[in-house]
Amino acid sequence: MYSEEFQAKLKQQRKQWEDALTREPGRCRRDAFTTLSGAPIQGLYTPAEIEGADYFRDLGLPGEYPYTRGIRRTMYRGRLWTMRQFSGFGAPRQTNERYRFLLRHGQTGLSVAFDLPTLMGRDSDDPLSEGEVGKCGVAVDSLRDMEILFDGIDLGKITTSMTMNGPAPIFLAMYVAAGEKQGVPAAQLAGTCQTDILKEYIAQKEWIFPPAPSMRLIVDMMAFCTRRMPKYNYISISGYHIREAGATAVQELAFTLADGFAYVEAGIRGGLPVDEFAPRLSFFFNSHLDFFEEIAKFRAARRIWARRMREKYQARKPESWLLRFHTQTAGCSLTAQQPENNIARTAFQGLAAVLGGTQSLHTNSMDETWALPGEKAVKIALRTQQIIAHETGVTHTPDPLGGSYFVEALTNRMEAEAEKYFAEIERRGGVLKCIEDGFFQKEIARSAFEYQQALERKERIHVGVNEFVEEEETLDIPLLKIDESVAREQVDGVRKLRQSRDGAKVKGALEALRRAAAGTENTLPRLIDCVKAYATEGEIVNVLKEVYGEYREPAWF
Amino acid sequence: MERKIRVVLAKPGLDGHDRGLKVVATAMRDAGFEVIYLGLRQTPAMIAEAAIQEDADAIGLSILSGAHMTLFPRTRQLLAEKGAEHILLFGGGIIPKEDMGDLAKAGVGRLFGPGTPTAEIIAYLKQAVPGRRKEAPVV
Known about the structure:
Strand order of the largest sheet of chain A: 3-12-11-10-9
Strand content of chain B: 15-25%
Number of helices of chain B: 5
Largest sheet of chain A: 5 strands, parallel
Largest interface: A-B, 48 and 36 residues
Low-confidence stretches of chain A: none
Radius of gyration of chain B: 14 Å
CATH architecture of chain B: 3-Layer(aba) Sandwich
Order of helices and strands of chain B: EHEHEHEHEH
Oligomer: heterodimer
Number of helices of chain A: 22
CATH superfamily of chain B: Cobalamin-binding domain
Low-confidence stretches of chain B: none
Largest sheet of chain B: 5 strands, parallel
Mean pLDDT of chain A: 96
CATH architecture of the domain at 155-456 in chain A: Alpha-Beta Barrel
Structural class of chain B: alpha/beta
Helix content of chain A: 40-55%
Distance between the termini of chain B: 5 Å
Distance between the termini of chain A: 48 Å
Strand order of the largest sheet of chain B: 2-1-3-4-5
CATH class of chain B: Alpha Beta
Shape of chain B: globular
Helix content of chain B: 40-55%
CATH topology of chain B: Rossmann fold
C-alpha cells in the first residue's frame, strides 16, 4: 500500500525512535503488555504493522463487502442501535409491568429473560422447579402466560428477543399464537429467538435434547420462518455465554462463528438454499473490558462471516453475507465489591460495542452481582446507552476507528487466530464432535482458570477486587426481591389451567406433535396447535423427550 | 500424614453457570484436596447421598440462580436427617448479604461471593474442616 520510499523512511525513523527509547530511564511500567485475552501489544503501531493490507479487500466501505466497517452505509447516522434491556422476573404480570416501565423510559425493543424451569422445559409445578420459579427470569408455562407477558404491548410494532434455546420452537409457536391473538399475522412479527443450542452444550448448559434432534428442530424452525416469517430472526448465534464461561475474545469469536457455520451447513443439508435462510441468521456477542480488543473482535467477525458466506457457502445475496449482531456488556466483569463502579465498566463496554458497530445493545445494571436488577439500576443502565447515543458524538460517522494502525492490526490478528481455531475444529471432526469430546468446554475452562490465577497473582488488576479494596463495604443499592408467593401463584395458575382447558384437544395436539417429531414432518405447525390448545411447556417437552431422549453432560472439570 | 480434605462440589437445581465451580474445583485439586465433582443438575438428595457415600468432609454448592434460600436449607436438612451433620456445607454464588446471614443462622457455613480469591476458600476449609471430623484423622 505504501511506496518503497515511505517504507524505508518509516523503518529508519522507527529505528531511531527505538534507540531513543532504550536510552530513556525507567521506560515502561511492565515488561510486556497484553490484551485481556493475552495477545501481545507492541509499544507502537505504524503503517508497518498493517503492511500488506489491501483497503478494498480487507476493509471496503461501510455497508459494502466485506463489511469490516459496518453493515450499513450510514450506520448510526441513519438509525441508532436498538436499546434492548434483557429483562424478566417473577410472574408474567410483574415482568409486563417492567416492560412498560422500560418502554416509558425510552427503551426501543424488548428482551425476555425466562426463569430456569422455563429454559429447561419444566412447568412451575415440576418438583425440580422448586425454589427456581420466577427467580432469574419470568416463569412462562403456557400461552396464557405469554398473553399476560405482552398484554398492552403491540407485537406488530415492537421487536422482541427471547433468550430461549432448548425449547425454542415451542416459544416461537407461543409468540406466533400470541401475535395472532392480538391480530398480528406471523409474517408481520419481527424479533429474535436465540435458539442457539450449540453454545448451550459448550457454555451456558441449558439444554434438553441431545445434539442431533436439537439440530433437527432448529432446521424445522429455519424452514418455517423462511417461508412464513420473513422479518423474524429465528436464531441468534451466541458468543456471549461462551465468553462469560471464561473464553478469551478469540475463543468467543472463533467458537461462535464455527457454530454459525455449523447451522449454515445444517440448513444446506436440510435442503434449504443458503440465500433463503442465511439473511435471517443473527449473532450475539459479549463486550468485555479490553476496549480495543473488543472493537477488533466485532470488526473481524463481520469480515470473516462475509468472506465465508460468499466464498465457502456460495451465498449470492449480499444480505446473506451480513453479520448482524446484538451485544451485551460483560456480566462476568462486574464486581460485587463497590458495585457502583460497574456503571463505569458498563459504559466503556457499551461504547466499545457501538464503536464496533452493534445493531442492538443491552447494558448491564450495577447490582447484578447481587441480584436481578432493581428499577433504579436498570434505568441508569439504559440511560448509559442514551448518553452514548446522544451525548458522546461517536455515532456521527461510521466506524470512526477504521484505519487506526492499532485497531486494524488487532482486527487482522483476531481474524488470523480465529482461522487457526477453525482449522483445528475441522481437524477434530467438526463442531458436534468437538462438543462430544469436550474440546470447547476444556479450552474455556482452561482460560477461565488462567484468568483467575492472573487475578490472584495481581497480574491483572480488577478495581475493588484485588486493588483499591475497601475493607468495610455497605451496599447502598436497593435489591430486587422475588417473593415466594410468586411461585405459589404460578403453580396454582398452571394447575387451574390444566383443569379448565379442553383436555381432548390437548391430547390430540400432543399426539400429532409426537408423530411429526418421530417422522420428518415439520414440527412447527404441530407445536402451534399444541400451544393454542393451551398444552403447557412441560407437557410438550415431555412428548419430545419421549421421542428424542435427554442430553447428559459428563461431570468433569 | 493427615488425611486429605475431601470435598464434594456440585451445582444444585437447574442453574448451568459452572465457570466458578470449575475454577474452584481446579484450585482445590491443585491445593491437594480430594475433589468429588458432581457437576450440574444435582438434587439436594443426590448431593447429600454422594457426600455420605464418599465420606466427604465438606460440600460446596454453587448457586447463581437465586434458588439459594431453598437449596441450601434443603441440603442441610437432609444431612441432619441422615446423621451427617458433621459434613460442612458451604458455597458461593450470587447471594445477597441478608440471605447470607439467614443461611448462616440455619447452619450453613461460609458463602463466597463474586471476586473471592480461591486461596481464601481453600484457607477456610483448612481451618474449618479439621475440627468437624467425626473421628481422629487417619494417620
